[in-house]
Amino acid sequence: MARLNFDDADNLVDVELITEPVEVNRYCQARDAATHYAVPYETFAANLPAKQSNTRERNR
């Protein structure tokens, strides 16, 4: 697992390689939970109020 560390200006500062099995497993569980609850962008955008949805489409 690689942890990317950023500064306050969102610049990549460094990358930490995580090899401890317990910690890797914890990150895998978080990833799996996020994937389980994720929805396609089109579904997400369709459920936004019209003004926000239009703004997001222009910014894509």
Shape: flat
The radius of gyration over CA amounts to: 17 Å
**Main beta-sheet annotation:** 2 strands, antiparallel
The run of helices and strands is EEHHH
**Total DSSP E strands:** 2
Unreliable parts: none
- Alpha-carbon distance between the termini? 29 Å
Decide which structural class fits the backbone. Answer: alpha+beta
Features:
60 residues; alpha+beta; two-stranded antiparallel sheet; 3 helices; flat
Give a written overview of the molecule.
This protein has 60 residues and is of the alpha+beta class. The protein has one domain (2-59). The protein has three helices and two strands. It has helices at residues 21-37, 41-46, 50-59; strands at residues 2-6, 12-17. Strands 1-2 form a two-stranded antiparallel sheet. The model has no long low-confidence stretch (mean pLDDT 90).
